[in-house]
Structure formats: structure tokens, C-alpha cells
Amino acid sequence: MVFLLIKKRVFGLFNEDKLVFMRDECILNSRDNLDKYIISGNIHEKNISIVIDVVNYNYYEDMIKIFDEFNIKYNLMVNDYYEGSQTNLIYKGNNVDYFDSVICVYYDEDNLKECERNGFNILKIVNYIDIDLFSNIKKFLNKGNIIFIKESYNNLNELRITLNYIKSRGFNVISVNELLF
Predict the structure, then answer these.
(1) Interacting residues of 171 by C-beta distance below 8 A, sequence separation 6+
(2) Is residue 104 classed exposed, middle or buried when 0-12, 13-18 and 19+ CB atoms within 10 A define those classes?
(3) Is 159 exposed, middle or buried (0-12, 13-18, 19+ CB in 10 A)?
(4) pLDDT at res. 9
(5) How far is residue 91's CA from residue 79's CA, in Å, rounded to a whole number?
(6) How many whole angstroms separate alpha carbon 51 and alpha carbon 149?
(7) What is the C-alpha separation between 77 and 58, in angstroms, rounded?
(8) Are residues 132 and 138 in contact, defined by beta-carbon separation less than 8 angstroms?
(9) Could you tell me which of 49, 65, 104, 147 has the fewest CB atoms within 10 Å of its CB?
(10) How many CB atoms lie within 10 A of CB 100?
(11) Spatial distance between the Cα atoms of 135 and 161, rounded to a whole number of angstroms
């Protein structure tokens, strides 16, 4: 978490009891960050975020049910049209009509230009799991990581054991927006 420290003075003297801590804005809400891409979130707490890469719409609903069983937050990455341009967008939760802040996923230079043109926050994929979910999660399980999981039959079958492992290591799985505070 990022905090602003505001000092208040009383009668010209510094009074420690008058310190006020305020939470800073999520970096997604800052227009100063639109020319940069995001690779991870807050590394000061034991949190990660998981994004389901919805590729073929065959397994993501079953994956969502497992996340719900564990009461774990998730995000969906879908290839979508935004103002006439096709791009990958991240949505919070299982309703693709709802998102807090539009996050565009960077995967090539053309896509990057499209994200910048639309004024999207840009997330660069660093931790992507295509196959062998359980064995690969061990490599990517670090504070602040945003982990992309491909929607597939094999990953669906390994999801329960993977979520158990994540919880056993003391990690919380939160939304991308929460991770970026």
C-alpha cells in the first residue's frame, strides 16, 4: 500500500499526534501512468492476482466455479472490441460487461499503439501459464505477481490443487485493481 504523510503543525511546533495517513490512488487512476506499462503490483503484501485468459470459451465457466468454491477473486482477459478496435481487455469478475478500469494487455507493438491511442492502462504479460499449471505456479508465486492462466482442459483439472497450494503458502488472490494499490 502507498501512503501519503501529511504533517500538521500546531502553534509552530511539530506534533506527532497530528499525523494523518491517507491511502494513495490506485495507479490505474493516474493519467501519469498511461505512457508506461505495468508488470506487477504491490510487493509489500502477500497478494497475487490471477487472470484467466479466455481463449476459446470452453472451460472458463468451470474455472470460475472453482474460484467461487474457494471464494477467490479472479479476472478475465478476453479478446474484445473497444471503439472499433480489437484488443485484449481485462475485466474484474465473471461479468464481461463490468470493469473498474480498462486495462489493455500488451503483447505486440501494434497492440501497444492501439492501447495508447485509446488511453488504456497497459499491462505487460510477464507470468503466463499455458500448460502444467501446478508446477509452473511454484515459479511465479511471488508477492505482487499478476499470473495469467490459459483457459484449457489441463489447467482446469489442475486448478483446485493449485489454489490449495497458493492458500497453503499464505498468499491472498485479489483482483488486479486491488493488487495495484
Answers:
(1) 46, 47, 48, 141
(2) buried
(3) buried
(4) 40
(5) 11
(6) 6
(7) 14
(8) no
(9) 65
(10) 16
(11) 10
Query: Which residues, in sequence order, are bridge partners of residue 20?
Result: 6
∠ Cα 159 160 163 (to 5°): 85
| Cell numbers describing residue 133 | 499449471
Predicted TM-score of the model (pTM): 0.74
- Residue by residue, DSSP assigns 109-146 as HHHHHHHHHHT-EEEE--EEE-S-HHHHHHHH--TT-E
Measured over the CA atoms of residue 63, residue 112, residue 79 and residue 180, the dihedral's sign is positive
Residues in the chain with pLDDT values less than 70? 1-35, 80-103, 107
pLDDT of 172 reads: 96
